[in-house]
Specification:
Ubiquitin-like (UB roll), Rossmann fold, 14 helices, disordered C terminus, binds iron/sulfur cluster
Length: 497
């Protein structure tokens, strides 16, 4: 069946029956030529800001692209003189009361009002009166995560519709009309949903800001790196915005198969784990007289590790379900050749109050969050690994590999416990040695999410400190093994544990 066709500025495109003009423009990837404030593809259409008006041939008036159905043979002009004049009028109207505080506004650099004013707005103002100023609402706490500056609000109501249609928590509303129209919280509880960062993301101006990022960085210094959130089994698509190898924030990256336009707040701030000054990024090894492992070199640590693994009768390799599938496969393939005794390989999760397998996982709400707070339980299961069980018995050495999300097992696993991956200083006290590894942000790989979708990701930043990839450490172990087959007798190892 032939699809209906629509013409935008002389170019003809197919669209799906039921599309609005804006949706047809999105399909044709020309939607950026149609400015919008109240329209957002993840929210119901409001059609209130009038910024997206376009000229439709044979229609007497300009039409809003967001709410007008597309029809076969429609001819649209998105940049005609009439359209541009209308947009200039909307901009002039919106700027009557908007403060001229771009230099001190956190949204500068990613503000629709700023960008559209440059593109369509009048360069001078005819407004002679005093601007309306909200004194008390100029830095109003909407919650411990969000701050409102009502002076900057342009009344698009995206924030209100988000709490009505996405979280269905109805915390925000507009009070009064016209000049006095003010965004309010419905009651003293303020905003309490678990997806508040999205409100700051979709606010087209700097009226609502997310406290975790507020006044932290000018956005033009940031490089957006596509990545995945590893905070739960959903595996939401994100941008990790980094500057000089330090991630400054996460933002939702549209992925209609997984997270749509949104991410949860816990995931949004989870990047702090990886830049935590307490994170172990130096090889650590505990000496005979030491209660906690101390900094050492990779060579000393690998030598010691090989000796322990060679002397042990039973070695446990416990792989966290936050390991990438590639890391887990590498460990499963190479470690047996570096161990003389029996090597038992099991998986470990322990998040969400006792999740160990994908069967223990469940939705936490009707939007995104999952009980399993690791990103790859399904992927690890597909490699044939089973969770550690009491019947697995005792071990001489236990290696626990994880990417920073799986919990630490409560019970001691072996006489010598070794941590491998992402750990912090307080966790490291328990271990005889720590091999610092890479976080999701620092490596490439794949995770299989709660719905069985395999998602690949690339490194967003370089590794921190002396943290190294699984491949690099395994290569180091193999090289050491070949160069020093007498590893078990080397003097260097005798000084430790
Ligand atoms: S606070 Fe932002 S999202 Fe909410 S109505 Fe005002 S401009 Fe729109
Ligand atoms: S729902 Fe899960 S994967 Fe998505 S942002 Fe939240 S923690 Fe991250």
């Amino acid at each position: 069946m032939t699809k209906p066709k629509i013409t935008f500025d002389g170019q003809t495109f197919e669209f799906e029956p039921g599309d609005t003009i804006m949706r047809a423009a999105e399909r044709a990837a020309i939607d950026q030529g149609i400015p919008r404030f109240c329209y957002h593809p993840g929210l119901p259409v409001a059609g209130t800001c009038r910024m997206c008006t376009v000229e439709v041939e044979k229609a007497p008036k300009l039409m809003t692209a967001c709410s007008t159905p597309a029809s076969d043979g429609m001819v649209i002009h998105t940049q005609s003189e009439r359209v541009r004049k209308s947009r200039a009028g909307v901009m002039e109207f919106l700027l009557l009361n908007h403060p001229l505080d771009c230099p001190v506004c956190d949204q500068a650099g990613e503000c629709s009002l700023q960008d559209y004013n440059y593109e369509y707005g009048p360069s001078t103002s005819r407004f002679q009166e005093d601007k309306r100023v909200w004194v008390e609402a100029s830095t109003k706490k909407l919650s411990d995560r969000l701050t409102l500056n009502m002076n900057r609000c342009i009344h698009c109501e995206r924030c209100v519709r988000f709490t009505e249609d996405v979280t269905k928590t109805h915390e925000l509303l507009m009070e009064n009309r016209g000049w006095k129209k003010e965004l309010m919280t419905a009651d003293d509880l303020g905003v309490f949903n678990e997806y508040q960062g999205n409100i700051a993301d979709i606010c087209p101006v700097g009226a609502i800001t997310f406290n975790d990022f507020r006044f932290k960085k000018r956005v033009w210094f940031l490089k957006p790196k596509p990545s995945l959130c590893d905070g739960c089994a959903r595996g939401c698509s994100i941008f990790a915005d980094e500057e000089k190898n330090v991630v400054q924030r996460y933002r939702a990256r549209r992925n209609d198969q997984v997270n749509g336009h949104w991410i949860c707040d816990a995931g949004r701030v989870s990047y702090h784990t990886y830049s935590d000054p307490q994170r172990v990024v130096q090889p650590l090894l505990r000496g005979l007289a030491q209660s906690a492992p101390q900094a050492t070199t990779w060579e000393t640590l690998i030598t010691w590790l090989l000796r322990e693994m060679n002397q042990a009768k039973r070695v446990l390799l416990l792989i966290g379900t936050d390991a990438s599938s590639e890391e887990a496969a590498n460990l499963m393939q190479i470690l047996p050749s570096l161990t003389r005794g029996e090597l038992v390989i099991r998986s470990w999760n322990g998040t969400g109050e006792g999740v160990q397998s994908s069967g223990d996982d469940a939705p936490v709400d009707k939007i995104l969050r999952r009980r399993d707070q690791t990103p790859n339980t399904r992927g690890i299961e597909q490699l044939g690994l089973h969770p550690l069980a009491a019947r697995d018995g005792d071990f001489d050495v236990a290696l626990f590999f994880r990417s920073g999300r799986a919990t630490l097992p409560a019970q001691k696993l072996a006489a010598f416990e070794i941590a491998w991956g992402v750990f912090n200083q307080s966790e490291s006290a328990r271990f005889a040695a720590v091999l610092p590894g890479l976080s999701t942000l620092e490596k490439a790989g794949s995770y299989t999410n709660c719905e069985g979708l395999v998602q690949t990701f690339e490194a967003a930043v370089k590794s921190h400190g002396h943290a190294a990839s699984v491949k690099k450490i395994l290569d180091g172990m193999r090289t050491m093994m070949k160069a020093h087959p007498e590893t078990a007798e080397r003097e260097v190892a005798r000084d430790f544990v």
